[in-house]
Design goal:
The complex is a heterodimer of chains A (289) and B (302).
Chain A: H1 8-34, H2 51-58, H3 60-91, H4 98-110, H5 113-123, H6 129-136, H7 153-178, H8 182-190, H9 195-222, H10 227-232, H11 244-254, H12 258-287
Helix pairs in contact in A: 3-7, 3-9, 3-11, 4-7, 5-7, 7-9, 9-12, 11-12
Chain B: H1 22-60, H2 83-91, H3 94-125, H4 131-141, H5 146-159, H6 166-170, H7 177-188, H8 194-200, H9 205-216, H10 218-234, H11 237-242, H12 251-261, H13 266-286, H14 288-301
Helix pairs in contact in B: 1-13, 2-13, 3-7, 3-10, 3-12, 7-10, 8-9, 10-14, 12-13
The chains are: A mainly alpha (289), B mainly alpha (302).
């Protein structure tokens, strides 16, 4: 190319490389080193080999947090793979007012997670509106302790995430549905296939790649859940909603144990990596059966 | 809402008088039930989506003499008042939080658009040694979530004296690999001869980028802008870590702080959340088409 020196591309890249280098690549390397030290915010630290990981195996709070994050992921993933698809089908009908409904269903997405959690914290109180509505509908007889019952609290956190995420994944599904040729449905209708049959035989198989994509996105976001739990319950009651990132945050920034929390971060990374590889394997298997 | 408003025959095309057999009427009636059913379902979901917001608004408008725990609850405030909004703006620097969040969002949006476009342009339209391995390295680090490296990012911020500064809250997301990736895709799809004509006229590489390539990649730029805005506005964990002084809080951190301060009075928290939602909701309503396209594109590419 004319009039260009060898360093021209690097000048274009420089700002990004500096920012990514300082705030991503260096921290990635540093995390892998810190994980093998007993670094403390105030007094520094030294190399301790695998000690952090040995401690971690014995740390019941760590296993509790990992379990909570896993439970949350298991609750949220199917909900956010299926419900947004049904919504997308609902608003893809050629009827009046669909744009309005799409915009309204998307509105929880633009509210920040903190706002969503504060709104739901008010609704989910034992004496809150949700219990009142459910009692009126005779679905429950006595108030449900959404946020103070240890066996329910992760479900409540997952509920908020699902509510906020519905519209986001709906939009992805709408794009996926638009790629399904209209005449497939028409042909099936002529052959006498009812709506349910058309859904199972046409929509489901053809939307599966999109479902896989949504499943991957939801899972990878869910495993690092923090904000919902932090705002709704702060991890309580009695650590029943303390997620892995919440626990890393506590030990790292309240406990100031940077080495130990880096070791836990490394475990989180391995989990994320495992899930990523799993989803890639699933995508590849779909591509060449 | 009545069935006649949504005449089902409109989406089946014109029908001649000859079709109007008994079976046809039957099918039509069934379809119109389907249409009503759809609208009922839509209204049900509408209630779930909007209900929590409406309840929050209702709570925020209730006067101090009103029992907000009344059973059965009052959906419409008995003594509606804006006092809660005034109180929350006066007793808390909610205006400061709004300004702080706007500053962070501005830095993040400009950073991602400008730096992301520059890097994406170099990766897409220039040939140089190490380009492909650099790009591969960027994509590889796309899988590393911020949560994994937050401890070390905190140490970097401490060494750079960025603790408790809004710039520190913005810099780690001031350019993301996702933005570079989206911009690169936008430039790759441009016509290969786009720059040739301009280059003959002796324009330099920066002018080519700024005057020729960038205007053609406006669509990708809009996606990056919206996405980085949402990321910055929504960000909570990192500002929570780095911001210490209430005068530096962004809206998300400030609201949680507010929740701790006023846990006795839900009316004020409700007013605070409504104030926090309104600007971003207005932005969304104004740019809904770009929002929807952005979600579609970023999902497919991320």
């Amino acid at each position: 190319m004319i009039g260009r020196r060898w360093y021209t591309p690097w000048l274009f890249l420089a700002p990004s490389l500096v920012l990514l280098g300082v705030f991503m690549w260096w921290p990635v390397l540093n995390t892998s080193v810190l994980a093998f030290t007993d670094t403390h915010t105030l007094r520094g630290g030294g190399f301790v080999g695998l000690d952090n990981f040995r401690t971690l195996l014995q740390d019941s709070f760590f296993w509790n947090a990992l379990g909570n994050s896993a439970l949350f992921t298991v609750l949220v993933t199917p909900a956010l793979m299926v419900l947004p698809l049904l919504l997308a089908i609902l608003v893809s009908a050629k009827l009046k007012g669909m744009t309005f409904f799409r915009v309204v269903f998307f509105s929880p997405v633009v509210a920040s997670m903190v706002v969503a959690a504060l709104i739901w914290g008010w609704l989910l109180r034992s004496d809150g509106l949700l219990n009142f509505v459910l009692e009126r509908l005779h679905l429950i007889n006595e108030p449900v302790r959404w946020l103070s019952d240890p066996s329910l609290v992760m479900i409540s956190v997952a509920l908020v995430t699902t509510w906020k995420g519905l519209g986001y994944y709906m939009v992805i599904y709408i794009a996926g549905l638009q790629n399904i040729p209209e005449d497939l449905y028409e042909a099936a209708a002529i052959d006498g296939a009812g709506p349910l049959r058309r859904f199972w035989s046409i929509t489901v198989p053809l939307i599966r790649p999109t479902m896989l994509l949504v499943g991957t996105l939801v899972t990878l976001n869910a495993i690092k859940v923090f904000t919902e739990a932090f705002v709704l319950t702060g991890g309580g009651p009695n650590r029943a909603s303390e997620t892995l990132v919440l626990y890393i945050y506590q030990r790292g920034f309240s406990g100031l144990e940077l080495g130990y929390s880096s070791a836990m971060s490394l475990v989180l990374f391995l989990v994320v990596l495992g899930l990523t590889l799993l989803s890639q394997a699933a995508t590849r298997r779909r591509a060449n059966p | 809402m009545s069935a006649s408003t949504f005449d089902p025959s409109t989406d089946t095309g014109p029908s001649t008088a000859g079709d109007r057999t008994e079976a046809n009427r039957h099918a039509r009636r069934r379809r119109s039930f389907g249409v009503i059913g759809r609208y009922l379902l839509l209204l049900f979901v509408l209630l779930i989506s909007v209900g929590p917001f409406l309840w929050q608004i209702s709570t925020s408008l209730k006067g101090p003499g009103e029992n907000i725990f009344a059973f059965p609850p009052d959906f419409i405030p008995r003594e509606p008042t804006f006092d809660n909004y005034v109180t929350v703006m006066q007793s808390l620097p909610l205006g400061t939080y709004l300004a702080n969040s706007s500053y962070v969002a501005l830095v993040v949006v400009v950073g991602n658009c400008l730096f992301g476009a520059m890097a994406g342009y170099a990766l897409a339209r220039m040939r140089f040694r190490g380009r492909d391995s650099l790009f591969a390295m960027m994509i590889a680090t796309l899988v590393i979530p911020f949560e994994v490296i937050m401890i070390s990012v905190f140490l970097v911020a401490r060494d750079l004296n960025l603790i408790n500064t809004l710039t520190g809250a913005a810099l780690p997301i001031a350019v993301t690999v996702l933005s570079i990736f989206i911009m690169r895709q936008g430039f790759v799809s441009l016509h290969p001869e786009l720059e040739e004509a301009a280059r003959v006229d002796g324009t330099n590489e920066w002018q080519l980028f700024w005057n020729v390539a960038l205007p053609s990649a406006r669509g990708s730029l809009a996606v990056v802008a919206i996405f980085s805005f949402m990321t910055a506005w929504d960000d909570f964990l990192w500002p929570l870590i780095i911001l210490r002084d209430p005068s530096q809080f962004t809206l998300t951190v400030g609201l949680v702080f507010l929740d701790g301060q006023f846990s006795a009075d839900q009316r004020l928290i409700a007013a605070g959340t409504i104030i926090a939602i309104v600007p971003v909701l207005l932005l969304f309503i104004a740019l809904q088409r770009q929002f929807f396209r952005g979600v579609g594109q970023a999902a497919v590419k991320g």
